[in-house]
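Worked example (supplementary).
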Amino acid sequence: MEYLSNINSLTSYLPELMIVVTILAVFIMESISSYRPLTYITTIVGLIFAGLLLMISSSSTNLLFEGMIINDSLAIFFKWLILLSTLSIVLISRDDESVLDEVKGEYYAMLLIITLGMFAMVSAKNLLMIYLAIEMVSIPSYIIAGISKNDRESNEASLKYVIYGSFASGIMLFGLSFLYGIAGSLDINVVASKLASFDSSLTVYMIIIFILVGFGYKISMVPFHYWTPDVYQGAPITVTAFLSVAPKAAGFAILIRFFYTLFIDNIEMLQWPQLIAVMAALTMTVGNVLALNQTNIKRLLAYSSISHVGFMLVAFSIVSIDSVVSIMFYMFFYIFMNLSAFYMAIYMSNKYGANEIDQWNGIGLKTPLLSFFMVLSLASLAGLPPTSGFVAKVYVLRNLFADSNFLWLGVVAIINTVISLYYYFKIVRAMYFMKNDELVVQNCNPILFWSIIIFSLQNIIFYFYWPNLIESLNMILINTGIF
Amino acid sequence: MNSSILSLLIFLPVMGAIGMLIIAFLGKQGLMKTENKDIYKYVALVVTGVQMLLAFFLYANFDPTLPVTQSPFTVQFDWIPSFNIEYYIGVDGLSMPMVILAALLSFLCILISWNVEKHVLGYFSLFLLLDAGMMGVFLSLDFFLFYIFWEVMLLPMYFLIGMWGGPQRHYAAIKFFLYTLFGSVFMLLGMLALYFYAPGGNSFNLIHLITQAPQIDASLWGFDMRFLIWIALFIGFAIKVPVFPFHTWLPLAHVEAPTAISVILAGVLLKMGTYGFLRISYPLLPEEAVNFSFMMALLGVINIIWGALNAIAQIDLKKMIAYSSVSHMGYVLLGMSGIVGTESAGAQAGMNGAVMQMFNHGTITAMLFTLVGVLYDQAHHRWIVYPMDYKDPELAGKLGFGGLASKLPVFNGFIILAFFAGLGLPALSGFISEAMCFIGGFGSFRVLTIIGTLGILLNAIYFLRAYQRIFLGPFNEKYSDLKDMSLRDMAVIIPLAFLTLLFGVYPQPLLEIMRHSMTKLILLVQPFI
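After joint prediction of all chains, the assembly is encoded as:
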């Protein structure tokens, strides 16, 4: 493991630099009214270029910027996921009506800044960097949650988000300062080596809990989830879609990196997986049970995303390479199924003003193709075979058996699957079984239409690349050097 | 041909469903005339017809003495190597009757559904998917594959009940879905436990697991691991059967579903539960099968009595038949418990009787539901007696029909056959299999079986009383314009009636298919007594 100087690091940092350039370009264009319509295309081009640069950037275990960040294969995998979600959200945002046209430029810029922050989050190797990255994701998130300035709910969402977020990150910072106090260094490798011989388990427990507040808030882990439903409901729907996938991916990346670096040598003493297991059970159950009675689609999907986080935490409670593979596998398909469900919700919300489930009545037979794919996505979210959601869940459960400490968690998890079926199929029921003769079919714009289809198709065509994906995920983890 | 016939059986309906979607697409583009929705019906009819012929061809070339591993029809190759999942399908004496039953009923159900006018494309394509799932379950020899097919059926079933069903269809659909999913997720846990704990490498291969699973040596929460796996699988299968007390989804789903779907539910889906016991639980966990056989017999007898008592109390004809299914599936459980009989003849009779009862109940209940459907389509109600709180107070508490026998002679003839087969009259197929189940049960659990025989009496009560109230007595003039069975209805009923009569007097062909497989199963389990 080598420290690269700032100048040498830049070559491994090109995707991020590309995003920085795009952010600046978007800001400049936004301020000149005749260029304003170009912000959309600039953002897309910038992201595509960032993707191309990401494609040619090779992973290495060298630390960049004097040990601040690392561009290893784990980071690159999550960067792909983040880039994919950002790009797909930007693509559908042009015709979206939930964000007003006059703030679209700022909106793209904020999405890009969040993306940059998440790139830093998944590759941070330094306590300070971790904190900065999380803040860099959070602050623009507060802004875009409240970007509909005239909408009271959106403002409320933003304010709640700010208060909750700053509180959580304050506590996390407190936890990080403990680590600095113990190790005298901010580099997490150094901290890890000091921590291995540190024998006050109480202190380390406190650190873990404080830090989990910060990370847990980012991925909306129970009991730090309270912001999620309100923010998801209040924020413009494209923002909600974005927040439900990308920050979760980044949050899990940092959770994996942090815990598997810092708290792995003294795992016997700490038994933190027990804590995670309890949190996972709580997260799943609370998410699912509270989703049962929701009538607002965004709120329902918010609770559903909480429960999915819970399921991924189940995998996180098992310390093994297979288990991390299953988290990544789950996250990969979660992004597709969740985004495709959200796209359908965006279509419904934009074209029919439908935010409540009963406003979806009768849509199933009016737009058969899109509704069919929506059912596919919902089936996948509920984890029904033969969709990818099922296979992802099987992978998670399989690791429970490999370890066998937390088999009770398996029972909790499968009962939660049954519960979740009820509310996902409440939507299906509205779509197909309920009648609404007044519904006039509105055209879906082609980008959104194809996004829905391509994303939800992944739920079924993944059989073609499933073994390859698993194999490459394994390779990614072997190459990171964490394990 | 031989090696692809099983895959064809499974995937032909899928191709049919895709074909329908293509036709619909072409129709939308104006390249094909699809105003007449009958084209979808014909596609479904042809597909299921070919599937049925394939099943008969399979039967004609099937050698029951060969073990499944040596059968020329078996197909095995790696599907997902990283997870050790195989595409492993085969047919043996246990699955053969079920395949024929599923293929036959699917074909007949297309005929039954010919009247469907609402969303024809959706109905028939979902039906074909359901068909594919059923075939897949009966042919899979890999647990993972089995599970996927098992669950693939849920979604089409949900829509078929929920969109084309009766007044309470939405509730019935979700209740069916939740109940079955609840069972199958436990099955999933059992499956993963088998995968992990069975020695000799992680595998879902059901044939491989026969030798490996009994060697599982682990415990969890103070219980033996094999016991826990048995319980998990039991919950999964028992809900499908359905075993008391998991049966409450059944009457609702059967009553609310459209006729063809009730036929499939009662005729095929229930059998998947008992098929699961015989295919997976018994061979893989023989020791637990032995320990649990008393429980099986007990639950079987409860099913017989409780189902029959409930059926007696019903005033809705379809609901009565739904409860009679609960009762009849109890015989299967009782027969299966006979495997612990020390007399080999008892065990043989019990196991063969159980599988025969699965087949025979499939044909008989299909007849019953079809005939009720025929009556309902014309009369628009199926009350044996109107309920006391009926919306028309004039009718409340009165007989729903009366004296139909003279008005509908052909219908009357078939319903007599179906009712008598249902109550187990000798010379009809139900009698043979029920008697064999009792013989099997008697060899092991005398008292329980004696109590169980009460079921025959109770069955007779509700069938005969329903017959008397609907078909005998003074003719109800309201129904003077009822028409007798159409040719299409007869085409559905006659094959089923033929099988009922045939296996009532000459069960040998059916017995011959399954006998060898059952002997093998008994030999697997008996050493653990």
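Two points are worth noting when inspecting this output. The longest strand of chain B covers residues 75-80. Residues 1-182+246-279 of chain B form one domain.
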